[in-house]
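User: Structure with CU-O-CU linkage, tokens only please.
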Amino acid sequence: SQTREYWFDIGESAGSPDGFERQIYTVNNQFPGPKIEINEGDEVIVHVTNHLEEGQSIHWHGLNQNGTVLMDGIAGVTQCPIPPGKTFTYKFRPQGQYGNFWWHSHYGNTMADGIIGPFIIHSVRDPIVRGRDYDEEQIVILHDWQHDRADVVTGAQTGPGGYRGTLASPEPDAILINGVGRTNCTGTSIQYHAPCYDPPYAEIKVKPNKKYRLRLENMGTHALVRTSIDEHEYEVVDADGVPVYGPTTHEIPIASAQRYSVLIKTDKGKAGDSFWIRAAPGVACELGERKDPGLAILRYVDEHDKGGHDDPTSQPWHDLAPWDAQCVDLDQEHPLVPRNVRDAYEDPLDVHVMSSNFGAFVKPDGTVDLAFGFNNVTWRPRLFNPLLQQLENGGTVPPDTAASATFWDDGPGIIIINNLDPGPLGHPYHLHGNDFQLLARGQGSMTAEAFASWGYLKENPLRRDSFFVPGSSWAALRILTNNPGVWALHCHIGWHLSTGKLATIVVQPETIKGFEQPYDWTNLCAGQDTSAIGPS
Ligand code: C2O
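Assistant:
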């Protein structure tokens, strides 16, 4: 194995990914940010320098950080924010994981301002083999985009009138594919009194008569997208870094934070032909009309990378894909079977229920906030008094900071998530530090007592790290509590996360007490007001 060293400079500049110019956050002047690409077992060192005027932190989404919870990168949970002008070095060695991951800011919702990028891990153990199962690979980043800065949207969405008239769920202004998209320029120019244009579409170049592995990653802040490529079928072969036997289908939905590898055959044309890649914001396969999709072009090229400049001839803005669009809802029907078996037979040591909703939350001073939360607590981070530090010192998660559940011993445990929000308010939940098994789900809500006699799937249930729970329904996740730490469980809709929809799962608190506090920790937190409440 090797050491892979990266330098991330977080900065700010003007950018117009969808044709409308605004201030965006960048890493090394790139948007989306640089790709991290390693082999399993490599040591990763990332020196992150913050050139912004606000704090920052970077999280490595989907990496379990076994033994290195301190590198998990959530401001207020595992570290103090990196102050303006300062550098923090992340160092970890991903073991036992390979496939498609990503990294993003975990400070407020500044990932929505552009601090995102792919993190790919190759492994000789990956059952999807280059040269046998596919010839080449491409990363396809799907990503919703907003014309206002994240702090503006977050501030407005729970205030009087909401953001553009909606509470808690702003509509995206565009869907970007590999960082490029188009918006409704007429509406935008009127609203912002600012110029707007139609940028050229992003292109994915492929050679005819080959097999490609597309690494589809939803790095969006909100929208679930239904993605398809005209005339090409997807064979789904991994989900959130777990190799699976999956269906071959025309269209799949991908919730915020989820990833899939799909194999496609480029046998639908010759060099010069082009096809629409579509990413339509939606709720799920069955629900709702497809809205105007984000578009990119799959372009067939020759061996010199040449393939013409024409747009595809099929109708781009259309309510339906141009061919019979069958959509398999990969979160709803158990169509994915892990290739590496992990059964769920052992009796769980402990069952914890996490119920979450949007509503009125009483602040410590008695006033009321419209916010999201778990078990009646909305996440109010004390940024400079991170929970991990408190646990290392023998404390607990303060009950007015975040809801928490504790698994004391090493053994399997179960977390039941109740989504108490009604119908359209489905949420993509993400758990740090674990690829959980999805044991069961249902309508309404579930209790620990009722679940004890619930017949759940014991044979090789799907594992993943992000999962969509529709409104008024529940899901039961089984975790292995062999990774001591304080792990966030949260909604990956950035607007909801930054409005308090985060709880913590404490694993083996006695072991955490023995963890060392590295120099950087003391340095980052020194002299800061430990009682101040910051952006979540
Ligand atoms: Cu993608 Cu808490 O993170």
